[in-house]
């Protein structure tokens, strides 16, 4: 009788452990991860949101694996499959820099990843970058790391901890008083100045606990040159439906600088500042985090962002609600064609 009770107890305990591991995100366990990794290196694809992932699932673009279609790890689902015969793992990160960075690190920690591709929609801060265009930037900047100076100080005043190398004035600042309404006689503003800061990074090739700094992070040169060669004349979609089309054909643009921050930008003045000060052409909330993570881990990466709105640069309301689907579709077209055409290069 006691033996039967012990059997029941241990079976219940095993089921509890199995269930706990499943709900905590380890469904599929290490054996499934090892099985996928034994197949060889994969293309890792990080996508911000489901509506940007959905076009990849359509028209047979992404073919899920028949035996292990996905593995859940730490609350995220890693979709296992192929794109044009190339082994691929796709994961949705969720909105924001934190989500994008941690998801990219999870991807690299658990799987054999050859290169990382990231795609999604973005706002345009460049007058030459239009709705549904795809920007393949050569470098990425995180513009959301600031030193906010106290009121009454300015560019000639040293920042706290600047001597230690923690903060800098060299990258430029935003003076809020420069954007006051001209009808207001007060030429200053108690919000003062913010100074753009580089990220602290700890590259895998560096010395642990010895920080380095990175502001403009370049994409992989090989991947970028491949994209230039293969996607320069790529045909993109110009129509939302049969009765609603853009006035000009969308195109793929290269040689630009992209930026990210935990801000949905819909402000003409700040949009202009980013373009004038840093030459930034597109703005989003995730790409720079993917770039910084790959940079620190020494992993080749490239990013595709399609324009859904003008980030406050138009005279009417934000366009994202109208053009997000079209932009997401064009971003997917570019990514899928990149994988197809560069099959032999990675």
From TrEMBL:
Keyword annotations from UniProtKB, A to Z: Signal
GO-annotated biological processes: nucleoside metabolic process
UniProt domain Nucleoside phosphorylase: residue ranges: 43-340
Signal peptide residues on this chain, from the entry's feature table: 1-25
Domain of life from the UniProt record: Eukaryota
Molecular functions (GO terms): catalytic activity
Key word Transcription present: no
Protein known as: Nucleoside phosphorylase domain-containing protein
Origin species: Selaginella moellendorffii (Spikemoss)
């Amino acid at each position: 009788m006691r033996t039967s009770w012990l059997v029941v107890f241990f079976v219940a305990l095993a089921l509890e452990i199995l269930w706990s591991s499943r709900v905590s995100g380890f469904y599929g366990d290490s054996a499934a991860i090892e099985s996928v990794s034994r197949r060889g290196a994969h293309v890792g694809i990080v996508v911000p949101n489901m509506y940007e992932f959905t076009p990849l699932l359509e028209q047979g673009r992404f073919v899920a694996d028949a035996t292990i279609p996905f593995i859940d790890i730490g609350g995220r689902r890693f979709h296992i499959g192929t794109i044009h015969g190339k082994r691929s793992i796709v994961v949705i990160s969720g909105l924001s820099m934190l989500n994008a960075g941690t998801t990219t690190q999870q991807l690299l920690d658990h799987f054999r990843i050859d290169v990382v591709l990231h795609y999604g929609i973005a706002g345009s801060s460049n007058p030459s970058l239009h709705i549904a265009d795809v920007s393949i930037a050569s470098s990425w900047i995180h513009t959301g790391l600031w030193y906010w100076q106290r009121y009454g100080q300015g560019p000639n005043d040293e920042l706290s901890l600047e001597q230690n190398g923690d903060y800098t004035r060299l990258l430029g600042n935003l003076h809020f008083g420069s954007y006051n309404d001209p009808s207001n006689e007060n030429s200053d503003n108690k919000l003062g100045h913010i100074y753009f800061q580089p990220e602290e990074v700890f590259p895998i090739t560096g010395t642990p606990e010895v920080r380095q700094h990175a502001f403009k992070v370049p994409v992989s040169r090989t991947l970028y040159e491949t994209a230039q060669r293969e996607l320069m004349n790529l045909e993109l979609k110009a129509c939302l439906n049969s009765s609603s089309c853009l006035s000009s054909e969308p195109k793929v643009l290269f040689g630009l600088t992209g930026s990210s921050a935990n801000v949905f930008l819909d402000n003409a003045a700040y949009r202009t500042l980013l373009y004038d000060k840093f030459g930034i052409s597109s703005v989003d909330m995730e790409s720079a985090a993917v770039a910084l993570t790959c940079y620190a881990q020494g992993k080749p990466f490239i990013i595709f962002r399609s324009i859904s709105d003008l980030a406050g640069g138009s005279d009417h309301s934000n366009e994202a609600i109208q053009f997000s689907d079209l932009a997401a579709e064009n971003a997917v077209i570019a990514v899928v064609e990149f994988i197809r055409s560069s099959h032999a290069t990675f």
